[in-house]
């Protein structure tokens, strides 16, 4: 097996790994966007709760039924959800950072292999 074909095989392998990283990165980005949307929704609900009187009626949709809910319970639920979303955002941010770094390293490796391949191909 010649040096050229060895580098070709490595290039192909690294390119597939890079494509896989890109797919994972895209999934994590979509997850982050969903979390942003959920966070904005819950912040809006939390803000609305602040405008309500203490004796206001609050209903929660459970399946096809609206169920009356205590304001303090509803407020606590939304705040807990915001905390949960916040910690999930941090986790996803770390994942994004990690995948971006791995992706950059793969890109550099591919670039180096391409240069090696071109040098060997020009020598023949």
TrEMBL record:
<dbReference type="GO" id="GO:0005737">
    <property type="term" value="C:cytoplasm"/>
</dbReference>
<dbReference type="InterPro" id="IPR002777">
    <property type="entry name" value="PFD_beta-like"/>
</dbReference>
<keyword id="KW-0143">Chaperone</keyword>
<dbReference type="GO" id="GO:0051082">
    <property type="term" value="F:unfolded protein binding"/>
</dbReference>
<dbReference type="GO" id="GO:0006457">
    <property type="term" value="P:protein folding"/>
</dbReference>
<dbReference type="GO" id="GO:0051131">
    <property type="term" value="P:chaperone-mediated protein complex assembly"/>
</dbReference>
<keyword id="KW-0175">Coiled coil</keyword>
<comment type="similarity">
    <text>Belongs to the prefoldin subunit beta family.</text>
</comment>
<protein>
    <recommendedName>
        <fullName>Prefoldin subunit 6</fullName>
    </recommendedName>
</protein>
<feature type="coiled-coil region">
    <location>
        <begin position="4"/>
        <end position="48"/>
    </location>
</feature>
<dbReference type="Pfam" id="PF01920">
    <property type="entry name" value="Prefoldin_2"/>
</dbReference>
<dbReference type="InterPro" id="IPR009053">
    <property type="entry name" value="Prefoldin"/>
</dbReference>
<feature type="coiled-coil region">
    <location>
        <begin position="82"/>
        <end position="116"/>
    </location>
</feature>
<dbReference type="GO" id="GO:0016272">
    <property type="term" value="C:prefoldin complex"/>
</dbReference>
<dbReference type="GO" id="GO:0051087">
    <property type="term" value="F:protein-folding chaperone binding"/>
</dbReference>
